[in-house]
Specification:
heterotetramer; A: alpha/beta; two-stranded antiparallel sheet; 12 helices; about 15% strand; B: alpha/beta; Rossmann fold; about 20% strand; binds thiamine diphosphate; binds magnesium ion
Chain lengths: ~325, ~325, ~325, ~325
């Protein structure tokens, strides 16, 4: 199957791809929201000890969430992982329940039963499930798409996972089934080069993740995961085929985490030079430069966004702090219906 | 009343529920063209078409995962896992995902899927195709677990399982597929979580599960001849477990034997014994005895498999041991 | 005597066995460069090189399957599965292959591998990273199952597990990795299948497993203050289970509480209670009570997780309930 | 990675490939042994009821076992499936214990504990394990190869499986790990077009099984599974690379079962025309024609082989009938050592 590399989208093609100023600014705002939300979460964890348990930050990958979600429709469903705050925010989950979930409060997305690793479950906005089992969401997404097809909707199930997920059985079985049955799934691999300390090429011997995916017989796209425009265009193209009924598609987004695997991890296994190179390509700065250059917004406008986001984040923390924990007696209600 | 086999009773349950509710779909290996290796899904592909009766590749994780995903959007998938042993292949979905969707989402989601499977103990299938380990799923809270022992129960409970809003693991006994029993023509649904007293008695309670219910009934006959009047209780579902019914029976009889196909250590009987001793300690006149296979893989040789399996004789001697 | 953490004690066990026997190799995710997510394998890659300390892709089935295959030719692989929950991903190998190699081959093969894993209950990891279900492996005969509660036991039992000719599932408590305890400098190996009386007492037996042993010891102190002299028995291995030691203790004390991290239905305590009631019925002065989490997935919220988990207070009140 | 199609081996290349007369005749004998052994087993099951339990016949695929084993060395290890009688016989397992295992007798390869589905376990001849879980042997073979590499031997682990096995997680994980670690494994897929009633293309959407395998980054070969010469040559080529330390290789043998999935299955789902076409290509007849044409043996010589094999098979049945079943009390010894 074809592999389409969309890592660089010439500026002149933007209109043709639906990359309007509005869209670019929407993506920028979402990315700033993710960035500030997570910086706050990190601070609450490391400095204040108000958040405990595993906390995996999405910092540096914001363009992927923003780019993909910008192309999705509200009724499309998203499934993600333990690294899902960014997907949740970009798909429209309000910050208050998201933050409250990190605190384990009853006002959280999952009533505090799930914490950061599964905070990205918010049915109302089509954020369906967040599994902390690597690739656990892949076969589930296939089933979500089966239901969509069964119901005759035009919706798509989108599932996010990392580069480390492509070597496990669930990935293989989920992709194969979706391909054989021609189901409307968009598989999005955020290839940030590492699964914990393990580099992609130490864990797989295929030429690339995209090559592996395409061998399942699905159209495959490669995007620059640090460039929201590239991600948006690739997603849009992938969705076109899926909505036409051509079956699943695969999108590999090449990107990099600004931090380690979890908040505790300093990622000392990554070469400094490599880190420096990637950190220079901050996805927010890249998009900012674009919108400023094109006069879509002024510095002041961005500052305003920043201020608004700052406030929303702050409010979400206050809200979380004020919120109660569920009574233990209530828990039983969530085991069986 | 007409008598039909367990396989046919289950087939009727599937068919009726598919007719009733267009959201019921089936998926699994060989369930379509082949009609299921034990013919439980026979004719359904022809009747409902390939969109609702889906043959899958050999990929149990995908089968269960896809059933789960579809259920989250409100379908009612019934996934077939050909042999219980192969549940292990899909165990990540079965343990880490299926039972927890509701809880982890704080009640936002429910997962009304059914996983049907069967264990083939008694059919000379050897170590990798005969295992019976329902008690595992007592340690997977969020799942309901059903083990029918008669065509009547099979049909009524499968219909209930499909209608239930929680995920249900429905474990059939392959050795019972061809046994016949009375099944009414009219529609009926049985409740999950309710034990059934298969035979009333005063002197002894035998709790038996799945295939072993048949053996327990034979044992009760044999005991009757020796003047012992046994009550046979079939829990039918082990999660939820109708422990009250069992405790009530024991309060009446003061003696308990639990008989099943799960090997001795860690089996269902262990949980039943522990619950009974905690709740009805003062009523017990004798130790609780379990009739179960020994802690070993299942031998192939037909003679050895028979020796390995609980049967009526073993239930009888265990019971007799409590009087004496 | 020097005190070291459980993590360091386990690290020493691995290192000593690797020095002793070139056939001991390690494989698992993040065990090399990263030194293990809980640092149990720290320094071993540097000392023994990448041929003997092998970082794997994320593929638990391959990890366990490869360990099994290597063991069939006589290596002694120690496979690490990062969280017990992920055993489910490899369950086909763990249930259908690893325990049965010897039996299915009629004794031609043995599979001297160790699968090390840990459960993280108590570390605020939520429903998919905290599960504790050791009792499953009572229904996987052919496996041995070890659950150490102290650095001393951890080291001695891990060395025994590596030397054992049968497959061993070695389940650590993540919550205990940083607890310290006395560990001699000299080499020692502890036998598998032998319970350890962690505290002697006359009035009550508390059987506790893994993390909960620590809670049971605190509970025993609290009970002492109330004039109740509890014996704390740590089975250390549950397959084989040293039921004689437990029964002996109960014969002495006539009262039994079992406390553990596996949810109530189907847990280890169920098997222990069932065995004790069968073997020591006449010695029991009170019902057997189990202290265990309720049948539900594990909640994330730190307060809720604490409420979910067994602790010293819960053991104390269960014990008090037996006197009165 | 390259895919090499060796489905037809020109006669003039035989010597160059090591296809001596001796080798061809050895393969022919093995194939006849398998054929007669299994026909007898089928008869004992269907007509006499002396064998019970699942019984999966290898009839029609004999050229694969003979061809592969002819290229292997004694110390190379073989892992197979529930359809393993052919592999066992070709690797040198005597018929007596093999047949006795089908009877469940204490003199069987596995002392009667395993039956037909696992009869192909015979350590002494390097027939290491037979799993009846589809693809269950694949990761195990990877581990066997790991031990071989660790010990510094030149041996190879060979694992057999069907076309249905390529869609399950174990396959994916086992191949990936073997490839990343460069282990000496030969993966042999006997593609008989069906997994029970399911055709290959209904279960996977990759171009071919060979294409899927090669995407893991290993050299892949395609053989005519009904032509022992083709299988032998492909195996030999695959082994060359493996023994040179180039890591695993994959061999897809295209073939067809003469019977259904198990003895009870009449395979009514297979088009008659397809069946007829394949049955015409009986691997034994193909090889017979070759050796007769080349004057490597005369009809009389083949009849002699047939007679000898007939006798060995008959003896194995007598032996099995006479043999006792293990005492139940003995079983405990096989649970733990
Ligand atoms: C089945 C399974 N194995 C191992 C883990 C532990 N684990 C959590 S995240 C992770 C690395 C995943 O890396 P990748 O897929 O690249 O995602 P990233 O963290 O880089 O976003 C591992 C090994 C797990 N959660 N599930
Ligand atoms: C994990 C698993 N799922 C399902 C089965 C049931 N089963 C046994 S053989 C088989 C078909 C396998 O087909 P293939 O791999 O093509 O091998 P063939 O039988 O054609 O030799 C199936 C589905 C099994 N044994 N293991
Ligand atoms: Mg990654
Ligand atoms: Mg096949």
């Amino acid at each position: 199957m074809t592999i389409t590399d969309l890592r660089s989208i010439p500026k002149e093609d933007y209109p043709r791809h639906g990359l309007s100023g509005e869209r670019l600014l929407w993506m920028l705002r979402k990315m700033i929201e993710i960035r500030r939300f997570e910086e706050k979460a990190e601070e609450l964890y490391l400095l204040k000890g108000q958040i405990t348990g595993p906390l995996h930050l999405y910092l540096g990958q914001e363009a992927v969430a923003a780019g993909v979600m910008s192309a999705l429709e509200r009724e499309d469903m998203v499934l993600t992982t333990y690294r899902g705050h960014g997907h949740a925010i970009a798909k429209g989950v309000p910050m208050r329940p998201l933050m409250a979930e990190l605190f384990g409060k009853s006002t959280g997305t999952c009533k505090g039963l799930s914490g950061s690793m599964h905070a990205a479950i918010y049915r109302e906005r089509g954020v369906l499930f967040a599994s902390a089992i690597v690739a656990g969401g892949v076969p589930i997404a296939t089933g979500v798409a089966l239901a969509m097809k069964h119901r005759g909707t035009r919706n798509v199930a989108t599932v996010f996972f990392g580069d480390g997920a492509v070597n496990i059985g669930s990935f293989h079985e989920g992709l194969n089934l979706a391909a054989v049955w021609g189901l409307p799934v968009l598989f999005v691999c955020e290839n940030n080069l590492y699964a914990m300390s393990t580099r992609v090429e130490e864990a797989m011997s295929s030429d690339s993740i995209a090559a592996r995916a395409s061998s399942y017989g699905m159209k495959t796209f490669i995007a620059d995961g640090n460039d929201a425009a590239s991600v948006y265009v690739a997603t849009r193209k992938a969705l076109e085929g899926i909505r036409r009924g051509e079956g699943p598609a695969f999108l590999e987004c090449r990107t990099y985490k600004m931090k380690g695997h979890g908040v505790y991890d300093k990622a000392e296994y990554r070469p400094q030079e490599e880190e420096a190179r990637w950190l220079e390509r901050d996805p927010i700065e890249i998009l900012k430069a674009k919108v400023l250059r094109d006069g879509l917004i002024e510095e002041a406008g961005i500052e305003k966004i920043e201020a608004e986001v700052e406030e929303t984040v702050g409010e979400s923390v206050d809200f979380s702090v004020r919120s109660p924990v569920l009574a233990f007696e209530e828990l039983e209600r969530y085991v069986y219906s | 009343m007409r008598e039909i086999t367990l396989a046919d009773a289950l087939n009727e349950a599937l068919r009726e529920e598919m007719l009733r509710d267009p959201d019921v779909i089936l998926l699994g290996e060989e369930i379509g063209v082949f009609g299921g290796v034990y013919k439980v899904t026979r004719g359904l592909l022809e009747e409902f078409g390939p969109e609702r009766v889906r043959d899958t590749p050999i990929s149990e994780t995908a089968i269960v995962g896809a059933a789960l995903g579809a259920s989250l959007l409100g379908l009612r998938p019934v996934a077939e896992i050909m042999y219980m042993d192969f549940l292990a292949v899909a165990m990540d979905q079965v343990l880490n995902h299926v039972p927890k969707a509701r809880f982890m989402s704080g009640g936002q989601l429910s997962a009304p899927l059914v996983i049907r499977t069967q264990y083939s103990l008694g059919r000379v299938h050897g170590s990798q195709h005969s295992q019976c380990f329902p008690s595992w799923f007592l340690q997977a809270p969020g799942l309901k677990v059903v083990l029918p022992s008669t065509p009547y129960d099979g049909k009524g409970l499968l219909k209930a399982a499909i209608r239930d809003d929680d995920p249900v693991l429905f474990i059939e006994s392959g050795a019972l597929y061809r046994t016949k029993g009375e099944v009414p023509e009219e529609e009926y649904v049985l409740p999950l979580g309710r034990a059934d007293v298969k035979r009333e008695g005063e002197d002894l309670t035998i709790v038996a599960v799945s295939r072993v219910v048949v053996e327990a009934m034979k044992a009760a006959d044999a005991l009757e001849e020796r003047g012992i009047n046994a009550e046979v209780v079939d829990p039918r579902t082990i999660q939820p477990l109708d422990i009250d019914a069992i405790v009530d029976s024991v309060k009446k009889t003061s003696r308990l034997v639990v008989a099943e196909d799960g090997n001795r250590s860690g089996n269902i009987g262990a949980t039943i014994a522990a619950e009974v001793v905690e709740r009805a300690f003062d009523y017990l006149d004798a130790p609780i005895v379990r009739v179960a296979p020994p802690d070993m893989p299942i031998p192939f040789s037909p003679e050895l498999e028979q020796a390995y399996m609980p049967d009526a004789d073993k239930v009888v001697s265990a019971a007799l041991g409590l009087f004496g």
